[in-house]
Amino acid sequence: MLVTNRFVVDPDVAPAFTERAHAALAALAARPGYLRGELLRALDDPRHWCLVTEWESVGAYRRALGGFDVKVHATPLLAESVDEPSAYEPLASAAPGGAVDVRASDRAAAPYR
Q: Which of 36, 59, 60, 82 registers the highest number of CB atoms within 10 A of its CB?
């Protein structure tokens, strides 16, 4: 599962944002089920940032959000992200030069989920 949190950060607070984002990434990285993460900045407009993390499952990500260090270091930062969907399930992938591997969705068939 992939989680992307986008941010718009004024250049004058970018150093403080970066420090907070590093602490958030470290807190998330310490949780079980974490696979990888990156802090990214847009090349075209340096006010736009993205924190991307990958998790082994939805449950692992949701449990990670309950960790004390995550609540202290990541949750306040994530609350400042652009208000939009941020969690994505993988439905297809392809290795370099490889075929497309299609996966079924974990979403329920009913619209309740």
A: 60
